[in-house]
Amino acid sequence: MLHQIPTRPRSHSAAPRARSTGFIAFVGIALAISGLGASDSRAATKLIGQPAPDFALRSMSNENLRLSEHLGEVVVINFWATWCGPCRQEMPLLDELYGKYRLAGLTLLSVNIDDTAERAVEMAQTLKVSYPVLFDDRKEVSRAYDVGSMPMTVMIDREGVVRQVFEGFKPGYEKRYAEQLRELLNQ
Q1: Beta strands 64-66 and 74-80: pairing type?
Q2: Which of 19, 30, 146, 172 is deepest in the core (most CB within 10 A)?
Q3: Cα Rg for the chain, rounded, in angstroms?
Q4: How many Å apart are CA 152 and CA 166, to the nearest integer?
């Protein structure tokens, strides 16, 4: 992410300001190309091809769920927070995918990273999600998965290996999710 450079007092000449603006634009483009200006997705994508870190978290229904209990299933872990607008957009779409592929062997685990569960419970109930909502209030699981942006969606194959990591969400991503899920479910 680029940080705003403090502005100087206005000069009477537009030339220094134009050069400065051009330089800032050049630096921004260079950082974006190198990947240094964006959130560091390399941390999360280093998980791809690795065994998914196991965890146990308390769910909205007050039971503890453990990832390793779902070995043999395709698992989607979705990290989200109540303050995240794209998370709110994505959750109903994930619920549709869960409804469509659950009988084919899909498990969806929603991991909320808020400090307390109350707002997360309210949001999940408002959005009427049918998949399990888990609480990572100590952020141990989100650290194990190197969550750097919200939302983050991790796809794990039937052997427990991370196959895909999606960071952020924009409308249309659900098509990419469905494509990847069909591939994993057919393996």
Answers
A1: unpaired
A2: 146
A3: 20
A4: 6
Which residues, 6+ apart, have CB-to-CB distance to 94 below 8 Å?
Answer: 76, 78, 108, 110, 129, 131, 153, 174, 177
Q: What is the pLDDT of residues 9-44, one digit of tens each?
A: 334 444 444 444 443 333 333 333 333 333 344 556
Per-residue model confidence (pLDDT) at position 156: 98
Domain 44-185: CATH superfamily, name plus number: Glutaredoxin (3.40.30.10)
Domain locations along the chain: 44-185
Q: Model-level pTM? A: 0.77
- The whole-angstrom separation of Cα 153 and Cα 166 is 5
CA 124 to chain CA mean position, Å: 16
Both tokens of 48, joined, read 């791809």
Reported residue count of the chain is 187
Across 69-90, average pLDDT: 97
Sorted by sequence, the CB contacts under 8 Å of residue 45 that are 6+ apart come out as 165
Q: What's the CA gap between 85 and 1, in Å, rounded?
A: 18
